[in-house]
Amino acid sequence: MVQLNMTAVPADELNTLLDRVSHKLTIAEFRREISRFWRRELRQRKYLDQIRFSRGACKKFMDEIVPVAQFIAWKKIKSGFIQFPLDNKVPDCFFWENGGKAAQDIEVTIAQGRARFYLMQEAVGHGTGRGFLELQDDDSVEEFDQAFEREPDGYTTDQALHSVKSAIRLCLKNKNHPKYASMDLLIKGQSTSLRCPENVGERYEVTWLMPRSACHSEKSM
Questions:
Q1: How buried is 160 (Cβ within 10 angstroms: 0-12 exposed, 13-18 middle, 19+ buried)?
Q2: Long-range contacts at 101-104 (CB < 8 A, ≥ 24 apart)
Q3: What gap in Å lies between CA 42 and CA 62, rounded to an integer?
Q4: I need a surface site. Which of 115, 147, 167, 190 has the fewest CB within 10 A?
Q5: How far apart are CA 184 and CA 186, in angstroms?
């Protein structure tokens, strides 16, 4: 495997953002904070490696905050309140609708996180890489290593859809635990066919919000 530079970067702007979102914000305030950070980051590329690999100070940002921000943008949610405890406990996020007293508890998880890491490692190390990997997070290190020893080849739409469905099922299985019973599950996945226009080595990412009952049903997919 290619050795990558994972040297930690001082996290001034990022720490400021993390501190802000750890307090209860309006959705408008939250979206402004996220936009402000990305505008600065796209100019400076200060956290590029950490963002690509969800490492260091960027891990919670990429694995918890960004998926929720993407979902809010996709659903065009413009009102309410949000807070991220960032305390290594569940849930990852609290969301209050306008006028609502009880928060919606949201747990965030990453679909095919290991595949994403290997794909990014190949792309960064070689300047290009394959766009699809069918392996799941519970596959062995040997299977991942063997996959990247083979030349990239094409894949069908059915293969991609099957892989996504398998990844979602695995996320639901991993969160099928009483401590998540009161929470909705936000699953972050990615499209294999699109690239970000900012050219930072990121694929477009998609999110699914699964109701709390889905984690306890084998027939949810």
A1: middle
A2: 104/184
A3: 15
A4: 147
A5: 7
pLDDT digits (tens, 9 = 90+) for 208-220: 777 666 655 545 4
What is the pLDDT of the chain when averaged over all its residues? 85
Paired sense of beta strands 93-96 and 104-110, if any: antiparallel
Domain limits of the chain? Answer: 12-216
Note the pTM of the prediction, 2 decimals: 0.82
Would you give the DSSP letter of residue 138? T
Residue with tokens 């290190």: 141
Show Cβ contacts of residue 220 under 8 Å, excluding neighbours closer than 6 positions.
172, 210, 213, 214
Helix axes 141-149, 113-126, angle to 10 degrees: 40
